[in-house]
Amino acid sequence: QVQLVESGGGLVQAGGSLRLSCAASGRTFNKYAWFRQAPGKEREFVAAINWNGGITNYVDSVKGRFTISRDNAKNTVYLQMNSLKPEDTAVYYCAADFRGWFQSGYDYWGQGTQVTVSS
After folding, report:
1. How far is 112 from 78, CA to CA, in rounded Å?
2. H or E element in which residue 76 lies
3. CA angle 68, 69, 72 (to 5 degrees)
């Protein structure tokens, strides 16, 4: 059974940093992504990474502040978040899929981890 387990969320002051981790049990996915959902808002894409880390993509609002990376030996993807802002407050979800980079969609999702940034 494929499972994604996120960790690393928490409460941090504006300007601080957090690193989220997402461990995939038993499988190496072709692509990973992070999404987030703030209260009262729709889930939005944050960042994605391809099978070898050679291609990444970010939503404009986090470019230069967040970095997605992966360790295939550990079946884990990370999201390093620096210079956090109160508007980054959300539940962050890890997503993964076996389809190629240019095929849309993610079939596997974690349970989410809360990130709260205080002003």
Report:
1. 14
2. strand 76-81
3. 145
pLDDT in tens, 85-110: 999 999 999 999 999 899 889 999 99
Judged by DSSP in three states, 15 sits in coil
Q: Which two tokens stand for residue 48?
A: 């994605």
Task: Give the residue from 84, 94, 101, 105 showing the smallest Cα distance to 25.
Answer: 94
Distant-in-sequence, close-in-space partners of 112: CB < 8 Å, separation ≥ 6? 6, 37, 91, 92, 93
pLDDT (tens digit per residue) in 21-65: 999 987 789 999 999 999 999 999 999 999 999 999 999 999 999
Sheet with strand 18-25: strands edge to edge: 3-7, 18-25, 76-81, 66-71
Tokens encoding 115: 């990130």
Q: Which amino acid is at 41?
A: K
